[in-house]
Amino acid sequence: MSFLTLTNIQKSFGPVQVVKNFNMTIEKGEFVSFLGPSGCGKTTVLRMIAGFETPTGGTLTINGKDQSSLKPNQRNIGMVFQAYALFPNMTVHDNVAFGLKVAGAPKPEIDARVKEMLGLIKLDHLADRFPYQMSGGQQQRVALARALAVKPQVLLLDEPLSALDAKIRVSLREEIRQIQQQLGITTVFVTHDQEEALSISDRIVVMNAGKADQIGSPFEIYNTPATRFVASFVGTLNLIEATVVDPNTNRIQIGDQAVTLKQSVAAHKAGETISLALRPEAGSLSDSARSDTALTGQVVSAHFLGSVIRTRMNVGGNVISFDMFNSPGTTPPQAGETVTLRFMAADLLIIRD
Ligand code: ATP
């Protein structure tokens, strides 16, 4: 049985439905990210799990128990927010001890647990500091320790890294993942940063306008996006219009060039327009050994980005970007030059709207 289940969860604020039939099961110990643009409903789903918002429909269970009659403080959930939200007038020790004190735990037990938690986040030496005496990254680690101190059954993280600078964000996300795995705690992480979600999750839910567009492992989400929205939100991607030539042989046409897809086209009719996705890193001008498909077009522009030269070419009205790896002796293609882009047929994916 799954640990956390959301079945047909809905939420409306007045006449506006911001979460629509949200379904998801999360296993014990899993790290799941809700990824999506601002306003898609990620935080609202998280707040319903925490009990801060009441669903207008659907069922939510944790460890088999319906949560609808339980208040936030009865759900045994730990939460970390974007803003550090520490108690400013309390030391690090007292912040981490807070939940245990409220629960009436004896002092020796509290002190031992605080010591353990500060060891976990490697801040034992700052126990007597106040929040204003610490960096944003340190404060967020204390917020994590405070959330974990009460041994919650689920940890909810609402954009906990977005107020931090880029370098700290990367190191802290690795630390969060390592602590999560060490404790085996079921975790839901909200973010609008696709790299963050891809790097730390067991599974990702890509949310679009109040519903889950796709749920899958980071590899599935990145390599086989199910919808146009997922394809464009997760990474840079070429969207290419094509026409079905023969559904039986998976033959399609891009501009005036025919290509045979690896994926089945059987669900479409001859003459139908379909959308295809191709990642910039999938194609190459020179690596003919790994290729089984090619498109010829005219170079529109070539930008040197350091390790790669991002090149745009026009193929029958579709502008396709691809990355050429830079090495000594590489000559960037010139605008107007005719080039042939080679890739694997399996890299060209049909996506639905
Ligand atoms: P962000 O990344 O910007 O926080 P999000 O995906 O987490 O976005 P939510 O905060 O869940 O989005 O908000 C979803 C929608 O619900 C938004 O349009 C928001 O304006 C609306 N909303 C959220 N809370 C309320 C509320 N209490 N009353 C009315 N509308 C709300």
TrEMBL record:
One of its GO terms (molecular function) is ATP binding. Residues 4-234 form the ABC transporter domain. SMART domains: AAA. It is found in: Cell inner membrane. InterPro entries: AAA+_ATPase, ABC_SmlMolc_Importer, ABC_transporter-like_ATP-bd, ABC_transporter-like_CS, Mo/tungstate-bd_C_term_dom, P-loop_NTPase, Transp-assoc_OB_typ2. Coiled coil: none annotated. PROSITE patterns: ABC_TRANSPORTER_1, ABC_TRANSPORTER_2. It is a peripheral membrane protein. Keywords: ATP-binding, Nucleotide-binding, Transport. GO terms for cellular component: ATP-binding cassette (ABC) transporter complex. Belongs to the ABC transporter superfamily. This is Spermidine/putrescine transport system ATP-binding protein. It comes from Rhizobium leguminosarum. The lineage of its organism: Bacteria, Pseudomonadati, Pseudomonadota, Alphaproteobacteria, Hyphomicrobiales.
